[in-house]
Automatic annotation (TrEMBL):
SUPFAM superfamilies, A to Z: Thioredoxin-like (SSF52833)
Ranges of residues in domain Glutaredoxin: 40-110
Classification of source organism: Eukaryota, Viridiplantae, Streptophyta, Embryophyta, Tracheophyta
InterPro entries per UniProt: GlrX-like_pln_2, Glutaredoxin, Thioredoxin-like_sf
Organism for this UniProt entry: Brachypodium distachyon
PANTHER family listed in its UniProt record: GLUTAREDOXIN (PTHR10168)
Gene (name only): LOC100823724
Gene3D superfamilies listed in its UniProt record: Glutaredoxin
Protein name: Glutaredoxin domain-containing protein
Transmembrane segments: none
């Protein structure tokens, strides 16, 4: 019985691996993880007209992006700062108006609304969507 008790006690001992796995995810890591989970990911604010326009653009093309509304996320401000840093901004947190929408296609940063619209106008958006598996036309 002593072996059974020792084995049972060892099973409950926390390991270093479990401690590392339990470490909280940084905002940058979370953005990277969320961006890679779907073919098209849009970080948005629910009341932003530019965010609405980019979501409508994708839906009009037959693409259904995964949308993360920063104003509805408890860590939205942290994510906004991480996105601003990715875009080369200060991430001051003065409001999401200058940062969102931020679009990732195939896990890669496309950018804000200006970059998405430029890619759409110059014809490079559709090939990006096809390569990511979001569009089959």
């Amino acid at each position: 019985m002593q072996y059974g008790a020792a084995a049972e006690q060892a099973w409950y001992m926390p390991s270093a691996i479990a401690a590392v796995a339990a470490a909280p995810e940084t905002a940058e890591e979370r953005v990277e993880r969320l961006a890679s989970e779907s073919a098209v990911v849009v970080f948005s604010v629910s009341s932003c007209c530019m965010c609405h326009a980019v979501k409508r653009l994708f839906c009009g093309m037959g693409v259904h992006p995964t949308v993360h509304e920063l104003d509805l996320d408890p860590r939205g401000l942290e994510l906004e700062r991480a996105l601003a840093a990715l875009l080369g901004g200060s991430g001051s947190g003065a409001g999401a108006g200058g940062v969102v929408p931020v679009v990732f296609i195939g896990g890669k940063l496309v950018g804000a609304m200006d970059r998405v619209m430029a890619a759409h106008i110059n014809g490079s958006l559709v090939p990006l969507l096809k390569d990511a598996g979001a569009l089959w036309l």
